[in-house]
Amino acid sequence: MLIQLWMAEGFLQQKVGGQELMENLGNEYFDDLRARGFFQERQNNRYGDIRTCNIHDAFEKVISLYECSVVNASCAEGDNSLIRHFSLVQDSAISTFPKALHHAKKVRTFISYIRTYANIKDLCPNIFLHFKCLRVLDLSNTNVEKVSSSIGNLKQLRYVNLSRTDIVVLPASVTSLHNLQTLKLKRCNRLQELPRDMRNLVNLRHFSISNLGYWTQMPRNIGRLSFLQTLTIFVVAKNKKKGQGIKELEGLNLLQGKLEVRDLENVKNEIEAKEANLRGKDRVRRLELHWTANDYNDGRETVEFVLKGLQPHPNLEILGINHYSGVHFPLWMTSALHIPRLFEMSLRHCNRLEHLSGFGQLPSLRVLKVFEMNRLKCFGDEEILETFPSLNTLILHRLSNLEEWVKSKSLSFSCLEVLSIEDCPRLSTMPAHFPSLKELRLLNCGSMIVNVIAMSNLTSLTSLIIQGFPELTCLPHSLLENCKHLRRLQIRNCHKIEALPQNKEGIQFFCSSSLESLEISDCPALKCARFAWFTFSSEVNYYRL
Q1: Which of 212, 245, 264 is the last residue of a domain?
Q2: What are the CA-CA distances from residue 230 to residues 239, 252, 255, 309, 415 (Å)?
Q3: Are the C-beta atoms of 51 and 45 separated by less than 8 Å?
Q4: DSSP secondary-structure letter at 241?
Q5: How far is the C-alpha of 431 from the C-alpha of 412, rounded, in Å?
Q6: Which residues span the domain enclosing 478?
Q7: pLDDT (tens digit per residue) in 153-164
């Protein structure tokens, strides 16, 4: 966001004849300023991207001395005629346009900075009337329902953020903003329509949308926006002749970050799928591919060929597949040659797959999530020499027919630290060697799985959660015997469990002196007469409901 604001303000200038993207130039500026101490206390998201950072206090005072103003909405008074960058802090509903803003004719940035949903809808007409030099307009998190068509008169406008507002329609005059670089419409759940002629926004570089609301089709000929770098969602239309088919993605090879492609059932064959040219988009790091839920009208072979044609660039790092109705995945999804950098994969509602294998050969895969695949019976590979060499986190949730997690004949899961198995009632077979496992969650599965996992030598385990085992009568002694580093133990909704593991003297115990949190709830049959309290850490919390 920060670099997009710099672009809108004209702070980033390319060299004459230079081909470098302004966004790359902005990243260089940011890194240089951070190295000089201008930015402090940065926070990264789970993918390593910087989310927030603070400006050093000394610099903040200097840069806000003349051109910047942060004003409380209820007391916006004084001379603001020279102010160029304006942030309005919301503390109550605003019924009138603050008088102090009537003379702020040079404002280039208007940001409504609020922490909760705000009532400023009466402000909008005045903003468009008074701020003719406006370059940045951010009304996110407000109750704005309608954007006046007069927004088209703000010819200098380069950045518009209407995310999480109540807008229903974006006026057609927006398409006359030929300098517009960034348009954000995230979580506009009431939005029903986008302007037809968005192809006229020839300088648009970032178009962020999510939660499509009531509209289900992309603007026509969006593929003509050759500078587009951010397109978070693309919906494939049934009638590709209207300029809304998947071919619109073909020339958008500057796209970067996340790309989500929906309604893929409207792609009829591999040739059409290849028209998206996903393989040519080397800056896309995260790809989500969605078919419509429960749409199995086309044969499975057609769907399999479509996914084959959607092969991404080898630089892809995160992949999600949703409601895929094929029986097999294409070769590129399991090949180290095709997606060598992939570190996270999520598979949801792929309800025709019965055997999930091949992913163990991906060298960089660190996170694998498998959700709600009703026909899946078998997971894993037996013959591969080494499987999942880098896998750190494995999540298996709501797999009602999963019976077997194949035991590999060789080294597997050597780096696995987090394992979560939930709602897999038939799972009875799984590997028994997890040397690095730290967090284990077993929820609503068959009792057999507890006995199987107890055979593992879980010497690195720090957190164990066991929940929803109505037939489990006791915890295996071997499950906790070697957990020397266990800090957290939760046992919930195990109605028949009668005892915890015992030592030779018959005392129910936990061998870990490092235990910090113990929670036992909804285990009415449990007899807790004698605990070896001296083995607990002084920080332990004990709950018995």
Answers
A1: 212
A2: 24, 10, 6, 22, 34
A3: yes
A4: G
A5: 9
A6: 449-545
A7: 899 999 999 998
Q: How far apart are CA 103 and CA 349, in angstroms?
A: 57
63/76 Cα distance (integer angstroms): 20
Instruction: Give the pTM.
Output: 0.85
The last residue of a domain, from among 155, 190, 212? 212
User: Which residues make beta-bridge pairs with 441?
Assistant: 420, 465
How many structural domains compose the chain? Answer: 2
Instruction: Please count the other Cβ atoms lying within 10 Å of the Cβ belonging to residue 179.
Output: 16
Best CA proximity match to 420, nearest among 447, 388, 449? 449
For residues 212 and 52, give the distance between their C-alpha atoms in angstroms, rounded to a whole number: 26
Quick: pLDDT tens for 506-545: 555 555 567 888 888 888 887 754 444 444 444 555 544 4
Q: Which residues are CB-contacts of 416 (< 8 A; sequence separation ≥ 6)?
A: 388, 391, 392, 393, 394, 434, 436, 437
Burial profile 496-515: b = 16 or more Cβ within 10 angstroms, e = fewer: ebeebbeeeeeebbbbbebb
Question: 3-state DSSP call for residue 497?
Answer: coil
Checking DSSP bridges between strand 50-55 and strand 39-44, what pairing results, if any?
antiparallel
